[in-house]
């Protein structure tokens, strides 16, 4: 029967926000949707209303909207005599361009289809720094084999390591032509997805003109074409054959389409490729963007892009003054994307030793160091994103640099509302995290050595863990099977983790990552420079031994109690048999026994057994019935505890060592000891004769004392004089 509008809207609201969602999370999801955002959202509703107009009025309106938006974008981004294609998926524009180029280069493609591709296989060239999966997506949509996609490596010797190698591309194109293939299209980057570097678009354009190829450019740096000052590398993008603009993220406009600007003179081919449409409703895709551009105006658009560029420059200037931070930017004067990572430089001595060690076993050391820094930078990026969410920083994986932290305000600042204060807060948080990173990196090796020297602990090497390290307590097997030993190991390490978390320390102990971590281990997080590694390792070992001993004590006590019960049952059964013999056979007969017991009662003391848990022995209860009280047993042995009883300063937490050096502490102790000696009364030092005399007096006094002690004791009866003298001697 259908539902009313109120119920349907309530259902939509519940699906959007949830029935029991907190107000804070709702406010977070709807933040920064200002008037410009509402204007873009209004465009979708208006497009639906406009689509019901009569055909003639609809045609005139859609033509006006499409022509105005295309003209504004071409003027704004310096792309003369261009056409525009509006699409929801940012890869859809490149897909349509590929179809346009195929229709242009293969004249019979519209008639014979893919048969004409068999004569000359088309080749599409993309950079190795392009978006992941872009080449495969194009081949799948175009129905081409993956052999039609050629990934061009980036520079390895000269220039940026994120720019396409032009000389190598030239050789690859020549080889493809000689092998009978047809170079079709080249996809270049004006701001790679990872590091934000721009390819050498000028040389690439010359190369495309030489081999009659189509040049398509995409990237975040294309947004800077709207500014008054544009770098020459990005300005060369205005001469390309097509470019894709993602205005929604640049300007903070929700639900606006991406735009692909292109130049082509044959409208029939653009229609065949799907870049233009004869349906007026298709042209209404530009309506949200048409409304938003009019609302912001030229100055508003330029101001937003300029603000994002200033944010990146502000962060880059601050990063230059920080130690242990390495940046990877293309142009230090104007780089919309800032990529940085934590990296500890070696001193001259450390660099020499590290180089010598690396020359011996190069691959393992470089690989291990790369993994360690990747883990630390992953932790750094997550911490910065959590502490300063308005900054929009994220973690990116680069082929050469590894894991890095990326700040791309052109993609995030308009949506998150990033300001200069957020950049300052980001730098402050980074300054707080750098000492933690350096301390953890320096103490990792010391922690590994301490664990390997400690009996009962096993060091687990997990290079992907951003922390001090991973340790496991190994219990003694005692001939147990693998399954039982594994359960006992899991139980002890779980209890060890619980005990460590109960300590009042600044360290974090955990089971490690949810996926990919080692089992039955204790993961120790980031540390500071005042950590006492030896005390930490000794505490872990002592706590593990305590848990193991308590576990074994419980197991042994269980076994002893079981054996004691069996022994008590045997002794009680034996006592019952003895009691039957003492009472006689007549007392066991029901009637006769009662009469006999009445005339001659049998006095028998109750006999029982008590089990001493402390001594593990079985004892009689006769003394308990006599004294009317249970005898106290021996005192149980003390629970094994850690031998650590380190003296601490007031307010000093566990695992913290004093920042004063040991030399300074020893010097202070020596001075205090000298002060005590100075306070003693002065004494004259004896000369040689006095010393000798004093020694003789002490010997004589000791001899007299020994003689008196001997005479004071009574000699045994019948002792002769000689024996007495011998005893005195």
Task: Pick out its properties.
25 helices, alpha+beta, 4-stranded antiparallel beta sheet, single chain, 7-stranded mixed beta sheet, GMP Synthetase, Chain A, domain 3, Aspartate Aminotransferase, domain 1, 11% strand, 729 residues
Short summary of the structure?
The chain has about 725 residues and is α+β, with helices and mostly antiparallel strands. Among the domains are: about 305-345 and about 370-435, Aspartate Aminotransferase, domain 1 (Alpha-Beta Complex), CATH 3.90.1150; about 455-550, GMP Synthetase, Chain A, domain 3 (2-Layer Sandwich).
**How far is it from the N-terminal to the C-terminal residue, by CA?**
125 Å
Structural class: alpha+beta
Overall body shape = elongated
- Classify the helix fraction into a percent range: 40-55%
Contiguous low-pLDDT stretches (5 residues minimum) are 24-30, 347-364, 639-645, 660-721
Sheet with most strands: 7 strands, mixed
Please name the CATH architecture of one domain.
Alpha-Beta Complex
Average predicted confidence as pLDDT? 80
Q: Would you give the CATH topology of one domain?
A: Aspartate Aminotransferase, domain 1
Number of helices: 25
Order of strands, widest sheet: 1-7-6-5-4-2-3
Radius of gyration: 44 Å
Total strands: 17
CATH class membership of one domain: Alpha Beta
Strand content: 5-15%
Keywords: Coiled coil, Decarboxylase, Lyase, Pyridoxal phosphate
GO molecular function: carboxy-lyase activity; pyridoxal phosphate binding
Protein name: Pyridoxal-dependent decarboxylase domain-containing protein 1
Family: Belongs to the group II decarboxylase family.
